Predict the structure.
Amino acid sequence: MTNETKITEHHDVAIASARVPNGVICLISALYFHGMTTQIPRKVWMAIENKAAQSRLSSPPLKVIRMTTPSLTSGIEKHTIEGVAVRVYNPAKTVADCFKFRNKIGLDIAIEALKEYLLMKKGTVDELWHFAKIDRVARVIQPYLEASV
């Protein structure tokens, strides 16, 4: 980052992405990035490969989620924030991940994410279903999806 780079609301995401280049912004941080939550994450939620060494960042605080290759590499969007290449999951993958990790973030956040995804038309039901199958949560998400559509 240069001195002329404007600091944005996603500054912590840019810093974390620069320090953990193979990580992917996920869950609450991805929801916030896509404007799909009222929650402001206190930590940067980042997915890394199951067997990767965990980065030891003191700032910004990280919440590391470990994923296997198919889940880790699916649905990644690339953005540039403050001059830093940032990898973040797309909205459909983020919602599927919220259901996969509902015990870590809370079922209420997963349901809110699904409602916002549909309300804001961030993607299609087919896209969501595709990522729900990759994350192996299709049966979990199905009743919530049926109740929302």
User: Anything to note?
Assistant: The mean pLDDT is 91. The longest helix spans residues 107-119. Residues 11-148 form one domain.
